[in-house]
Amino acid sequence: MARLYSNENFPLPVVNELRELGHDVLTIQETGKANQAMSDEDVLAFANDKQRILLTLNRRHFIRLHNKHQPHSGILACTFDPDFSAFAKRIHDAIQEEGDLSQKVVRINRPQK
Fold first, then answer.
1. Deepest in the core among 33, 45, 60, 95, taking most CB within 10 A?
2. How many domains does the chain have?
3. Distance separating alpha carbons of residues 104 and 101, to the nearest angstrom
């Protein structure tokens, strides 16, 4: 399973669901780096240093960093979905489909109704 790092605004219920699916998820809160106004560059660098794929709702900023070729172990750029179980399942499925996510951005979009 994947080693993930969730940034500050990522929903904890989704993190918990991903853990139930067997993923190793580290939250920014667990690292003691929450509420420190870390730059997006620093968040991505931390995830990369720990060899973790970044989970974020802050899609635009992290896709921009990817396009600037900042090294990373992968970015899962998500659209918020209040159906946390379905949200986690889409993330899980995308990880399974993609395999190695190093230097890749995968968009996890909420289904259209």
1. 95
2. 1
3. 5
CA dist list (Å): 112 to 16, 93, 108, 109? 24, 18, 12, 9
Q: Report which residue type is found at 72.
A: H
| Amino acid (1-letter code) at residue 76 | L
How far is Cα 98 from Cα 92, in angstroms, rounded to an integer? 10
Residues 6 or more apart whose Cβ sits within 8 Å of residue 6: 14, 15, 25, 26, 27, 28, 54, 55, 56
Is the pTM above the cut of 0.90? yes
CATH number at residue 94: 3.40.50
Q: Is residue 103 part of a domain?
A: yes
The pLDDT tens digits for 45-63 are 999 999 999 999 999 999 9
Domain of residue 14, residue span: 3-108
Residue ranges with strand state E in 33-88: 53-56, 75-78
On whether residue 113 sits in a domain, the answer given is no
